[in-house]
């Protein structure tokens, strides 16, 4: 008897949106993303958005043929990923506000590092407890960890209960970090999703999929110096991802 082969995992696209107009544009696409990451301030790599933007986006999702989860960035400033106790208190309050306004499929994106450069487990655990049972992503704070230490730190994120981690492999962009991302995807082994992010475009996403073995990819779909995602780029990302 021939052993049935496992079906390949469906590729998924997370769209980073740095404004409400960009997020609404993403949802209007004929091929909307698997998930939207909502934040503000692209120049700082993404900060916590206003609650009113989240509420407007949730209203827009009700008209969609299928639900599109929204992951909210919880990041109070762009200075560093090391936070004082008062800042963690504030982040917990923001999580609680968005949690009450959202739904079960929505999640959160955050990342806390200690002064030695690894994951700040105590601070991170407080945020995860506040967000529970919503899925959480450890964001690109992970890319400040030296690549040699990433596998061990990934195990910490798995033990803490993260659903996913967004990373370029510590490189300036995902394509440059593809050789580091591949072993991270293998190390994850279905216990956590590696979201490949950083300069992901329709021109390189197919090669990134092959090189990394990842299932999740993250892009702003912003082109030519624009501020709002480009619908043609979203369609192109999906077309290349599914080829």
TrEMBL record:
GO terms for molecular function: copper ion binding. Belongs to the CutC family. It comes from Amylocarpus encephaloides. This is Copper homeostasis protein cutC homolog. It comes from the Eukaryota. The lineage of its organism: Eukaryota, Fungi, Dikarya, Ascomycota, Pezizomycotina.
């Amino acid at each position: 008897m021939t052993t049935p082969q496992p079906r390949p995992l469906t590729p998924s696209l997370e769209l980073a949106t740095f404004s409400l107009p960009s997020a609404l544009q993403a949802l209007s696409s004929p091929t909307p993303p698997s998930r939207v990451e909502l934040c503000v301030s692209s120049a700082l790599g993404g900060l916590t958005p206003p609650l009113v933007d989240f509420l407007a986006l949730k209203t827009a999702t009700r008209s969609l043929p299928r639900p599109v989860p929204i992951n909210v960035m919880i990041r109070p400033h762009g200075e560093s990923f090391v936070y004082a106790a008062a800042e963690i208190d504030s982040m917990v309050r923001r999580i609680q506000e968005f949690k009450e306004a959202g739904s079960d499929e929505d999640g959160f994106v955050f990342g806390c590092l200690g002064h030695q450069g690894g994951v700040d487990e105590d601070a991170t655990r407080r945020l995860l407890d506040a967000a529970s049972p919503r899925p959480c992503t450890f964001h690109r704070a992970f890319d400040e960890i030296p690549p040699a230490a990433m596998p061990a730190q990934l195990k910490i994120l798995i033990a803490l209960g993260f659903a996913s981690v967004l990373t370029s492999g510590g490189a300036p962009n995902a394509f440059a970090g593809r050789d580091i991302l591949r072993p991270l995807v293998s190390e994850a082994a279905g216990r956590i999703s590696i979201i490949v992010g950083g300069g992901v475009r329709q021109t390189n996403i197919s090669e990134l999929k092959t090189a990394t073995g990842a299932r999740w990819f993250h892009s702003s779909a912003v082109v030519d110096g624009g501020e709002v995602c480009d619908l043609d780029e979203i369609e192109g990302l999906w077309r290349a991802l599914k080829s």
